[in-house]
Design brief:
The complex is a heterodimer of chains A (622) and B (937).
Chain A lengths: L2 E8 L8 E6 L2 E5 L17 H4 L4 H4 L2 E3 L5 H4 L2 H9 L4 E4 H21 L8 H9 L1 E4 L4 E3 L4 E7 L7 E7 L2 E5 L23 E5 L10 H17 L9 H9 L8 E5 L5 H16 L5 E3 L3 H11 L6 H6 L11 E3 L11 E5 L7 H10 L6 E4 L8 H6 L4 E3 L5 E3 L3 E4 L8 H11 L3 E5 L3 H15 L2 E3 L7 E4 L7 E2 L1 H9 L15 E5 L2 E5 L1 H8 L7 E9 L4 H15 L5 E3 L5 E3 L2 E7 L6 E9 L3 H12 L7
Chain B lengths: L1 H22 L3 H5 L4 H11 L3 H13 L7 H14 L3 H15 L7 H13 L3 H17 L4 H14 L5 H14 L4 H5 L9 H7 L6 H16 L8 H8 L5 H17 L4 E3 L6 E3 H12 L5 H11 L7 H6 L6 E2 L2 E2 L3 H10 L33 H6 L4 H17 L1 H14 L5 H13 L8 H9 L6 H12 L6 H17 L4 H14 L1 H4 L3 H5 L15 H14 L11 H13 L29 H14 L7 H20 L4 H15 L4 H11 E2 L3 H25 L4 H20 L11 H7 L1 H6 L2 H14 L12 E2 L1 E6 L8 E4 L4 E10 L4 H4 E6 L5 E4 L6 E5 L2 E10 L8 E11 L9 H4 L5 H5 L3 E4 L4 E8 L4
Parallel strand pairs in B: 8-16
Antiparallel strand pairs in B: 1-2, 3-4, 5-6, 7-9, 9-13, 10-11, 10-14, 12-13, 14-15, 14-16
Helix pairs in contact in B: 1-5, 3-4, 3-5, 4-6, 5-6, 6-8, 7-8, 8-9, 8-10, 9-10, 10-13, 13-15, 14-15, 15-16, 15-17, 16-17, 17-21, 21-22, 21-23, 22-23, 23-25, 24-26, 25-27, 26-27, 26-30, 27-30, 32-33, 33-34, 34-35, 35-36, 36-37, 36-40
Classes of the chains: A alpha/beta (622), B alpha+beta (937).
Chain lengths: 622, 937
């Protein structure tokens, strides 16, 4: 029995370290090869010994597919290919191929240079690893070998994120990676055609959440930033009455600054686009700064991969590339002290170290400043503390920092919510669904929903657990044109989707199947045709002569079988189509006539019907 | 078979001969033109290869064929068809047959037999499809012939089983277009079996080819369009098609479901997998809503659009479309909208948002959460967030239509519309602002919503800002803080974009007059008056101050207590503004002052209105006059004209009517100037009906007669007179043909008499004609001008250039300088083709510039805005001089004439419609100081 086997090495009932092994029709594919954020020991990488026990990686795996450039999907790649040893092809989309090494290098730097880890992959290893990458285009079908083919679909989420269809013969698996069903300011929504795979492996980060419209979030965000930057304007100064009012808060406008700590590559770009277009629309002048380094490098690639972005950017890039920001400039440390309103994007996102923390310390004292946290903060970080309302923070060296600035929280996330996941399942129409990349408890709910609403079975294996799905692959059979036409001629009804019965001979030769008419099969095989005839005797109680009996049989059949050609031959026998009926006197009992019915194998149906009819006897002659 | 074919060919051939014999009767007609059919025949006989023949046919198809020679051509084509072996040539012939049968004036029933005959013997699928198309053309040409339609439907049914999708497609199309509507008529008529067209088409909903499935649905829709009532059973079939693999099928199926839901809105359908039943329209609504999250954007657009027109849906379902049932970690969560509302009602709006503010509240029952089949749930939320802006626009439009029919829904969808103001694509923003304006009667904005709306005032796009001003004009605001907020934001807008001055003032005018009670408590603050101290007098030229005053004065109109709060200078400013900006500042009943104009309460019906009566009386007085001659008549006319003009100035409501009548009287008075004046009347007013057009044309005719007389008196020699006479008579003839229907109304008029004498005039000499005309003109009576219901005068105001600048616009001679022109046009029909800009230079040279159609915006009904650039250029001048810029209204008298059938057909070229016959200046000219400098070397 053919089957599909799926074993998650990472991301099984867990977020992070995505790595899923799929065996389909004898081919082994590894989907994603990520690291885990929460661990810094061996557990951060998937356990490749699961595979290496049985031999080298290259021998076992036919290919590796990376869905997008986030480290929890590609972070273990150099370790896997260079240190464990894999020489086969690695497939990813072009933006991923371009941006992935930047992130890997950054990751390496933090691990080796900052934390001082030994036995970590080197820059050279990253380069060598990237040499094994094969780039794929959207909707391009790539033949990995003669039988295995893969195809990428747009997934939203981040630039270059893709969902992959892995197909061998008629069996297929779709792996979504991370995806987003609602478009954002720079990317479109995930899309897949009705490919009806045997299995859909989908992420389920937000399995139990239905999100609000993103427009409210955006509007809130823009309003907050705008208000802060514009505050203290002299609105009423145009005529004396107003001037008096304005003068009450005379003096230089206080420094009003907005700090937006960002982490994830992709979210930063979305927020940048959002602010940039808003600045442009509203004709605002306050500068927006962007912390240099990683995000800036990545931004360079964002400019190049316009076809991967959303409708608006694609349509307007001829006039202006939206990623060539007019209002957003690179940040310099000295700018933090300069007066006047400004907006700064700084890393890292949880305010636990680095530039964002430095700026935060500078600005925290002014109640007119604001910090907007665009994402989730881990417990223990400064970000988490201020979000939970703490106003006095203890910094290093027993310093106490009083936080007067406004703290805002906005959730910008690029994963599909429960509705989105269901929508994708509905679009792809899979036979089975398998959930990964999510918490077990939440998956449970979604699993139940999927089974209930789509009536397909749903799995959620833990890491190392194998799910086996039996499949019934369809086998294509070639049919000869002559036979097809002959069958078609027997009546073509519009409901051509219904299965139809047809007679033919199946020839299996050199692992291909052909359906041909029996004559042709005989010819091809050089066999002579044998006739198979069934003969049956039916005893009839009839005292009359044989000829008369034959006539009676003839008239009876004629009246019953109106659609068939019934003939009475001169030699006294009766034929119905090709079935021969002869009447003879019984050798012992003259009152009984024996009807000899003889038919060929092809006419089995009619022949057996006829015998049963005759067995019932003839009607009494009137 | 071959023998049969040969026989068939022979038969056809003999037919041709017969046909030619018949044509002898029409020989006279055919002699006048070279016979096309003969030429074609020769060409086709010459053709040696299929390619050649195809070339000849292509060439032939380029030229039109006259109706009378169509039959001959068809015969020859058919004859060739039988002989032809190459399918491509047969295909071309078949398509030509279709084209020819569409020729006007040709009745194609005679070729139908042949077409059906060749259809039966055709083998090639493509040619078959083309032939069916031809039959369709023939069938649609003969809509009344039941027998033929029956036959064609029969043919279509026979070929439905063809293996080619193209043939099946065409058959379905044929069925859709010709399938009989009334069964009973044909039942016994021809003995033909009555076919249930709907059943047959319905069978093909499950065809294996998606193109055929689409064609079947389209055919069904076609049946509906032709007035055949679709069965309700189709609904379930169509619902199955919604999950088809192909987008075009789904798209068509959505349409079909919509159609059925409109036909049987109240039927009850069961909900699958439960015992409940709901109304069909609700079920359909749920299904279409589901399609809003389809994977193909074409289907999404289609579905979003159709949602808007489903007005019978129960409000319960309608409101679901805006509700997504948020949850987070399996706990129910409120939407940001709900939270905003709650904050607002609890009175703590504007408190900063806190972490965990949106923390989910109660646990959700996992069993009850329905993630997919929730029908209408959140359809609009999805539609408005869609990736493609086409879908978003469609969703906004649908929201608009639904909100217009349901006030409670309007209230609910407000938050979503407001959110759309932040869309990334300007078109969508603009559309949502317009939508909001359309539904603004049903809604009152909350303060937080108003805040978001007002934030858009800073948009750098002029269109957006102006649309928003329009929106604010008709918005209801709930609190005085709201008004204050709006004013502050508008003033901010004014400082940022001073060009918006007019639009902002206008907006404040309406804002004030709509919310007098809300403005009242704000007045002291707005005017910065102080209970004890006098404050400094504000600068009267400050646009911001004027803006505030406009708001206050308009509010004061219906709020008599307000003027008590004004300080002295406010009264002075009022007087000044009432004069200078009378369209923005209303007449106020101020204590101790005379009313500036009689306060006419607007609720008096126009007929009871004394001024209206006055108008009627003065007109009746004039119409009682009999002839033009007496001195008294002229005086009376002059007085009446003066009266009417004054009336128009005083009563803006009657201005159109009064001015129109006055112009008519002036025409009577000044028959010589009539040509210009009549054209003015015809083209400068919108709402003029046919009745008036007749009279205007009549007037012109009289003027022409008069012109003829004058020329006859002054001109020497008879030769020019001959031409003029003939031309005049032609025009009379033209008039008669154009307005034949209205002639009975023109009893006793000039034209009436003229037509009586027409035979005599035709034969008379010019001198005599002049004489007759002379007497007739004297005898003719006034025509009573029936007043049209709605009449508006076209007018234009040039806002920019203002013509006040003393600094000449300098540019190098020979090069061009662009001059920004900004003008408002009122009541101009079709401004894109009629409004021109004229620039006249001091040397008498004048240029007419045609603005681009895109330069016209349409901010409201009857109003247009022209924002364009005019290029000026001239040779070098020694010193700066002024050029005049004005707007012209181009007209063309033939475009107004009602189309009679005989000019409609054929090549009544569109060129006639667009050409300009003359122009009427309809704006004041503005002087622009320019200085072309000589080029430096």
């Amino acid at each position: 029995m053919p089957e599909i086997r799926v074993t998650p090495l990472g991301a099984g009932q867990d977020v992070g370290r995505s790595c899923i092994l799929v065996s389909i029709a004898g081919k082994n594919v590894m989907l994603d090869c990520g690291m885990h954020m929460g661990f810094s020991d061996d557990r951060r990488f998937p356990d490749f010994s699961y595979i290496t026990r049985s031999g080298r990686l290259t021998d076992f795996l036919d290919c590796v597919i990376i869905s997008h450039f986030h480290l929890d999907h590609c972070g273990a790649l150099p370790y896997f290919s260079e240190m464990v040893g894999y020489d086969g092809p690695i497939y990813m989309t072009q933006p991923t191929q371009a941006i992935c090494p930047i992130l890997l290098e950054d990751y390496r730097k933090i691990a080796v240079d900052k934390k001082g880890e030994a036995n970590f992959f080197t820059s050279q290893m990253i380069k060598d690893c990237m040499k094994k990458v094969v780039a794929v285009h959207l909707h391009q079908t790539v033949q990995v070998d003669d039988e295995l083919e893969i195809k990428a679909y747009y997934a939203g989420h981040v630039l270059g994120a893709a969902m992959f269809q892995i197909k061998v013969g008629s069996e297929s698996v779709v792996y979504t990676g991370d995806y987003n069903m609602t478009p954002d300011r720079h990317l479109g929504a995930a899309w897949i055609d009705k490919c009806r795979p045997n299995l859909l492996i989908t992420e389920s980060t937000y399995a139990t959440t239905i999100r609000d419209s993103k427009r409210c979030r955006e509007r809130d965000f823009l309003k907050k930033v705008h208000e802060t930057v514009e505050r203290g304007g002299k609105l009423w100064a145009r005529w004396p009455g107003g001037a008096a009012r304005g003068s009450s808060r005379a003096g230089l406008p206080p420094p009003l600054q907005v700090l937006i700590p960002v982490f994830a590559l992709g979210r930063a770009q979305e927020l940048c686009i959002l602010l940039e277009t808003f600045w442009e629309r509203m004709d605002l002048k306050a500068p927006i700064y962007f912390s240099t380094g990683l995000t800036e490098k990545a931004n360079h690639y964002y400019k190049l991969f316009i076809p991967w972005t959303n409708q608006k950017i694609r349509k307007t890039f001829v006039q202006r590339n939206m990623f060539e920001f007019k209002h957003i400039k690179a940040f310099d440390r000295a700018f933090a002290d300069s007066p006047g309103p400004m907006v700064v994007f700084a890393t890292p996102g949880m305010l636990h170290a680095g530039q964002s923390l430095q700026i935060f310390r500078k600005w925290a004292g002014n109640e007119k400043n604001m910090v907007i946290m665009p994402g989730y903060c881990v417990q223990g970080t400064v970000g988490h503390k201020i979000l939970s309302g703490q106003r006095k923070l203890e910094m290093e060296g027993r310093q106490v920092l009083e936080v007067k600035m406004q703290v805002e929280y906005m959730s910008f996330s690029a994963h599909a919510d429960a509705k989105g996941i269901m929508q994708l399942v509905g679009q792809a129409e899979p036979e089975n669904v398998l959930l990964v990349h999510g918490e077990a408890k939440k998956m449970e709910f979604l699993k139940q929903k999927i089974e209930q609403e789509f009536r397909v079975s749903c799995y959620m294996p833990a890491n190392g657990e194998t799910v086996t799905l039996p499949t019934s692959p369809s086998i294509p059979v070639g049919i000869s044109l002559g036979l097809l036409k002959r069958e078609m001629a027997q009546g073509l009804l519009p409901d051509a989707k219904k299965p139809r019965l047809l007679h033919g001979t199946l020839i299996m030769k050199d692992s291909n199947f052909r359906l041909v008419s029996s004559e042709q099969a005989l010819k091809e095989l050089g066999l002579a045709e044998h006739q198979l005839r069934f003969t049956c005797r039916v005893h009839l109680h009839d005292t009359r002569k044989e000829q008369e009996t034959a006539v009676r049989v003839y008239s009876h059949l004629k009246s019953v079988l109106k659609d068939h050609c019934v003939q009475h031959l001169p030699d006294g026998s009766v034929t119905v189509e090709s079935i021969l009926i002869q009447a003879a006197a019984h050798s012992e009992d003259p009152g009984t006539k024996v009807l000899l019915v003889s038919w060929t194998y092809q006419d089995e149906e009619l022949g057996s019907y006829l015998t049963s009819l005759l067995k019932k006897g003839l009607p009494q002659a009137s | 078979m071959a023998a049969h074919l040969k026989k068939r060919v022979y038969e056809e051939f003999t037919k041709v001969v017969q046909q030619q014999q018949e044509e002898i009767a029409t020989k006279k007609l055919r002699l006048t033109k070279p016979s096309k059919s003969a030429a074609l025949h020769i060409d086709l006989c010459k053709a040696t290869s299929p390619a050649d023949a195809l070339q000849y046919l292509l060439q032939f198809a380029r030229k039109p064929v006259e109706a009378e020679s169509v039959e001959g051509v068809v015969r020859i084509l058919l004859e060739h068809y039988y002989k032809e072996n190459d399918p491509s040539v047969r295909l071309k012939i078949a398509s030509l047959l279709g084209l020819l049968s569409k020729t006007a004036g040709f009745s194609p029933d005679c070729i139908m037999d042949d077409a059906i005959n060749i259809l039966q013997n055709e083998k090639s699928h493509q040619v078959l499809a083309q032939l069916l198309d031809t039959l369709l053309a023939i069938g649609t040409k003969l809509p009344d012939n039941q027998a033929i339609q029956m036959r064609l439907v029969d043919v279509a049914c026979k070929h439905l089983t063809d293996t080619s999708h193209g043939v099946r497609n065409k058959c379905l199309q044929l069925l859709g277009n010709l399938g009989s509507l009334e069964k009973s008529v044909t039942k016994d008529a021809e003995g033909l079996a009555v076919r249930d067209v709907q059943k047959i088409i319905g069978d093909y909903f499950s065809d294996q080819d998606p193109r055929v499935r689409t064609a079947a649905i389209k055919a069904m829709l076609q049946l509906h369009e032709r007035g055949l009532k679709l069965y309700q059973t189709i609904y379930t079939q169509a619902c199955k098609l919604l999950s088809d693999d192909y987008e075009q099928v789904r798209s068509a199926a959505v349409q079909l479901i919509w159609v059925v839901s409109q036909l049987y809105p109240e039927s009850i359908v069961p909900i699958p997998s439960s015992n409940e039943e709901i109304r069909l329209v609700d079920d359909a609504f749920g299904k279409i809503c589901h399609m809003v999250s389809d994977s193909s954007w074409v289907v999404r657009v289609q579905a979003s659009k159709l949602l808007g027109s489903m007005e019978q849906v129960s409000s319960h379902f309608l409101e679901q479309t805006l509700d997504k049932k948020l949850m987070s970690d399996l706990r129910r969560k409120r939407t940001a909208h709900e939270r905003a509302k709650e904050l607002y009602t609890s009175g703590e709006f504007s408190s900063g948002r806190k972490w965990g503010d949106d923390a989910p509240k109660e646990e959700v029952d996992t069993g009850a959460v329905n993630l997919i089949e929730s029908g209408a749930c959140g359809a609009f939320v999805h539609g408005l967030e869609d990736e493609m802006y086409e879908v978003r626009i469609a969703a906004v439009e649908a929201l608009c239509m639904l909100a217009q029919s349901s006030p409670s829904f309007a209230e609910k969808c407000l938050d979503f519309l407001v959110d759309m103001f932040n869309d990334e694509i300007e078109e969508v923003r603009l559309q949502s602002i317009h939508t909001m304006r359309k539904i603004s009667n049903n809604i009152t904005l909350r303060e937080d919503q108003l805040d978001t709306v007002l934030a858009v005032l800073e948009d750098s796009s002029r269109d957006i800002r102006e649309a928003l001003h329009e929106l604010l004009c008709c918005t209801n605001v709930s609190t005085k803080e709201g008004i204050h907020l709006a004013l502050v934001e508008l003033l901010k807008n004014l400082t940022k974009y001073p060009t918006d001055k007019d639009s902002i003032w206008k907006c404040l005018k309406f804002l004030g007059s709509r919310h007098p009670t809300l403005v009242l408590p704000l007045v002291p603050e707005l005017l910065s008056t102080h209970p004890f101290f006098d404050t400094a007098e504000p600068d009267m030229d400050d646009p911001a101050y004027i803006a505030v005053l406009v708001l206050i004065f308009n509010a004061a109109k219906t709020c008599p207590t307000m003027p008590a709060l004004f300080s002295d200078h406010t009264f002075r400013h009022y007087a000044y503004l009432r004069d200078s900006l009378s369209h923005l500042v209303p007449a106020l009943r101020l204590p101790g002052r005379k009313l500036v104009s009689s306060a006419l309460s607007p609720n008096i019906m126009p007929h009871e209105d004394p001024s209206h009566q006055f108008l009627q009386q003065s007109l009746e007085r004039v119409y009682s006059l009999q002839h033009l001659d007496p001195q008294g008549t002229q005086e009376l006319l002059e007085f009446t004209i003066r009266d009417l003009q004054r009336l128009g100035e005083l009563q803006s409501e009657l201005a159109g009517v009064a001015d129109f009548s006055a112009t008519y009287l002036r025409c009577q008075l000044l028959l010589i100037k009539i040509m210009e004046e009549t054209y003015k009347m015809e083209f400068m007013y919108s709402g003029v009906e046919n009745k008036q057009v007749v009279i205007i044309h009549h007037m012109r005719l009289q003027a022409k007669a008069l012109q003829l007389i004058v020329t006859a008196r002054t001109a020497r020699g008879v030769d020019p007179l001959f031409g003029m006479c003939e031309k005049f008579l032609q025009e009379v003839d033209f008039f008669q043909r154009c307005f034949i229907a209205d002639l009975p109304h023109l009893q006793d008029s000039f034209v009436d008499k003229l037509l009586d004498l027409m035979p005599r005039l035709m034969t008379s000499k010019p001198a005599e004609v002049v004489k007759i005309l002379h007497t007739m003109l004297r005898q003719s009576t006034f025509l009573h001008l029936p007043l049209p219901e709605q009449i508006h005068k076209a007018s234009a105001t040039i806002i920019e250039p203002a013509g006040e600048s003393d600094n000449p616009l300098r540019f190098t001679s020979g090069l061009v300088v662009a001059l920004d022109v900004d003008a408002t046009l009122e009541h101009v029909q079709d401004p894109q083709s009629t409004v021109k800009v004229q620039v006249s230079y001091p040397d008498g040279q004048a240029q007419m510039i045609h603005p681009k159609p895109a330069d016209f915006r349409n901010p409201g009904p009857g109003r247009h805005r022209l924002i364009t650039q005019v290029y000026l250029s001239h040779t070098a001048w020694t010193e700066p001089c002024q050029v005049e810029v004005r707007l012209l209204l181009a007209y063309n008298s033939s475009s107004r004439i009602p189309k009679s059938p005989w000019i409609e057909g054929g090549e009544m070229s569109s060129q006639v419609e667009t050409s300009i016959e003359g122009t009427i200046p309809f704006s004041k000219s503005v002087k622009v100081y320019i200085m072309p400098k000589p080029a430096r070397r």
